[in-house]
Each structure stands twice: as structure tokens, then as C-alpha cells.
From TrEMBL:
This is TlpA disulfide reductase family protein. Keywords: Cytochrome c-type biogenesis, Disulfide bond, Redox-active center, Signal-anchor, Transmembrane. It is found in: Cell envelope. CDD domains: TlpA_like_family. SUPFAM superfamilies: Thioredoxin-like. InterPro entries: AhpC/TSA, Thioredoxin-like_sf, Thioredoxin_domain, Thioredoxin_ResA/DsbE_sf. It comes from Leifsonia kafniensis. Pfam families: AhpC-TSA. It comes from the Bacteria. Residues 60-206 form the Thioredoxin domain. PANTHER family: THIOL:DISULFIDE INTERCHANGE PROTEIN DSBE. The keyword Disulfide bond applies.
Amino acid sequence: MNTPRPAARTRTRGTVARAATGLLALALVLTGCTSDPLAEQYREGSNKGYVAGDGSVTEIAEADRGAAIEYAGVDENGDTVSSADYAGQVVVVNFWYASCAPCRAEAPDLQKLNEKFGDQGASFLGVNVRDQAANAIAFNDTYKITYPSVIDVDDGGMQLAFSDRIPPNAVPTTLVVDKEGRVAARILGQITAPSILSTLIRDTIAEGK
């Protein structure tokens, strides 16, 4: 039932963690057809409101990234956002929602990196998986977030587009998408070492030069 996944290099804060492999399409995951530990947390039904990632960083070699991911949605300001808008750019895609404690904790670091790489060929895009636009706008005001977020709570289109890279309900998750629209790296859980994400972004920007 599992679809083969690319070979990847995995790094964690201070220790080497096993790369997450064999992720299923979102529909299969939600029906329980997986042994993913994050899916197990999801099915436990804890009251914390999110599934905590383990902090693992998975990098995918260029030759193993597969096809480009196409997506589209509407952001908190009512503007249409699509993968075509980011053609030729590296895109950092962060899955979040306002009441998620790790999402709040990492927000300032994401904004700083957004400012750092804004003129270097990388853009940031949030995907809000639970809130309506008003909540997302309030969050942006509180944490001074300037990049847009697709409001994905109604149809889950963005989550489905990336479903082979993100476990069910694993929030936050941050993906680095290369210039060709393919996932180059993934961080499961809160970004507690911004320098790691900075390195992933810089290395992805440098590809092909």
C-alpha cells in the first residue's frame, strides 16, 4: 500500500534521527493504513490539539525529488495564490494554525528568515489548516508576519497537494520547495534552530548555479 519514497539525509538537533519514510497519501493515512508514529499520535486523540513533530530534518537529493507540486488557494486577504506565482523561486511552505503553541513559538523566527531571504530568491507561504481568515489576520498582526497564508480549512486542497510529504495533523511542518516546485527538505515540528532552516534555504537557492 505504501508508495516508495526518495532516499533522504536526516539531521536533528544534536542527534541523527531516522528519516520519515513510506508516507501515504492523506486519505489513506486518515483511514489508518499506516505505521507512521505521527499518525499513531493522531489516532491517540490527545487533547493538545496538534501532533508534535520530532524535529527531524529530511533532505531529498535533487535526483530523487520527483514531479513538481501544483497547488492553488485563497489567502487571508482573499487573494488567489498558486504555485505558478512562485515559478523559479525557492518557496518555504509552513503549515500552521493560530492556537498551536509551537506555531506561535516559531513565528518570529520564520518572519526573520522571510526578511533575510526576501531579496535572495526565496519566498515564504503559510498554510493555515484550521482557522478562518480573521484569526489568521489577527495572528499576523500579533507576530508581525508579512507573508501570506492560504486558508486551507474548508477544502484541504493545499494539504492534499503536499500529502506525500506531510503526516496527518503534523503541525507545524515546514517544507523547502526548490525552484522547480519539488520538495527539497522537510522539518517536522517546531523550528527551534533557525540556522538549520536558513542553511536548507541557502543550499536550495544555490542549486544549479
